[in-house]
Amino acid sequence: MNWLVNWVRQTLSFIKDVILPDKFFAWETVLYLSLFSWLMSLLARWLGAQDFTVWLMTTLSWMFLALGIGWALQANKVKLFGIPLAPWVAGGIVCIFLFSPWGEGWFRPALVAWPLVSFLLVAIPALVSWDLKLKKPLPPVRQQLVLLFLLSLLVSSWFQFYFRIQSWLQAYPSLAADNLDQSNFVYRIPGPAPTLSAGVTHLTIAQTMVTEQLDGKPWSWVERWLLNLDGHRQVMQDEIKDEMQTHSSLENDLWQLDFQPYTDGDGYKLQLWAIWLGPTADRKGYYLEKTCQIMPVSQSPTYDPSLPLVDPTGIAGTVWAAVDCPMEIRRLAGHPRGTQNRV
Amino acid sequence: MPITDLLSDLGVMPLRAIAFQSVLLLVAIVLEAIVLRQRLKLGYQPSMQYAATLNLLATSLGWLGFLSLEALLPLAVRRQVISYVLFNRLYPNPWMESLPILAVGLAIAAFFITYWVKLGGLLGLLWLLDRQPPETETAPLPTTRMARYEMARRRQLVPQRTESSLALAVLQANALSFTVILLLLLLHNAVRAS
Lengths: 343, 194
Hints:
Helix content of chain B: over 70%
Largest sheet of chain A: 5 strands, antiparallel
Oligomer: heterodimer
Order of helices and strands of chain A: HHHEEHHHHEHHHEEEEE
Number of strands of chain A: 8
Low-confidence stretches of chain B: 134-138
Number of strands of chain B: 1
Mean pLDDT of chain B: 84
Shape of chain B: elongated
Largest sheet of chain B: none
Mean pLDDT of chain A: 81
Strand content of chain A: 5-15%
Structural class of chain A: alpha+beta
Distance between the termini of chain A: 97 Å
Low-confidence stretches of chain A: none
Order of helices and strands of chain B: HEHHHHHH
Number of helices of chain B: 7
């Protein structure tokens, strides 16, 4: 029996050594306070306590967590490249606590505020004494604080610049699909290739319009349609503008739709172009090209008796139009109309 | 889900800007520290600290200015700014002709604005560190010839940190760092173009 009692006693003292700190004024105490407040907040929520109580307990738990981890890193002198980590980690925890209730998009202000909050965590102990009175640190400390403040302002500006670039790329998605190697400012993290630019949408809408207007129509209709190219071009540009209104983007007016038919055997080859008028890596600019085949066929693919016959004389030998647009979209440098100046 | 959002958003980062800025800042700080040390007869450490403070101040204010002005620019100019940042070139739009001239004007303005910011920063820093530049002394004029000679001799030996000598030192430091940075940028562009 004696060895059992001894064993229990030893185990207990071992557990005590691990869990209980040597001094009570230590970072472990603060972390335990944080854990305790968090458990209390859970308990309060479970008991259906007032919102204020839950908020108070959660806030206390976060504050103790930041303080405890900061203290632990400080006490153990954890450093990265010679920079003490404590204020940065503690500042990060405070920022997560402050900004995460903001909901969607809280990460941006949190990251921008992070260096400044960390600076405050360093500065406040130096500027405010324990009895909450302002104190004046020695000149070398003041110099250090000024440098630290400016440095954190610079880092914060870099974060802001990063987010500014992200908002540019959101406003002009086609820019993200371009080549960024020439930039002196940005670097693309290697990863999955960016999606094709928004010009594809314009081409798809144009293709749908062409198919609706020409596919399954009598061939003479097609011939007549091709006579009024400029009119159709204008109508199509206007309709695409209307259609793009639904997902409005700043870059809509930087895409211009154009097309040109060429004779190709018995039928026509209609080239649809979405021309990018905005900033590009290539000095000549670029455009997306899609080619549709319009061929005469003897049997209407979508024969519809209610269709008004345009050519009443040739009922028996009516030739119909079949429009076929392959999926392929090519990205070409320059302007499809050659030397034409970009606006 | 901040982590997945973050990873998918990371994409394009201003890493080159950060790297360039760090290098150029170091160059500017070292050069300006040399000038301040010689001109103001400062120690090695204070001159480095002053130069670092002034340059970090000018850079941070420059960033804040850029970030707030960029949001206020007309759409066409914003697009040119985006084009310059992402592709290092302007693109054909109505502003293409006038922007380079405007940029040269802005660069000259930036020189004087940074000079003003740095001088103000140095005065503020000296005040903060309780090292106020001594006012021009209004000592009573010495009566004897010997005393006057003594005083003239001492004037040359005792470092003078009046406002005008500060202004001159900062102007010289700023001019030196701007020139060297401009040369470095030109060199960089020439190397990239070849």
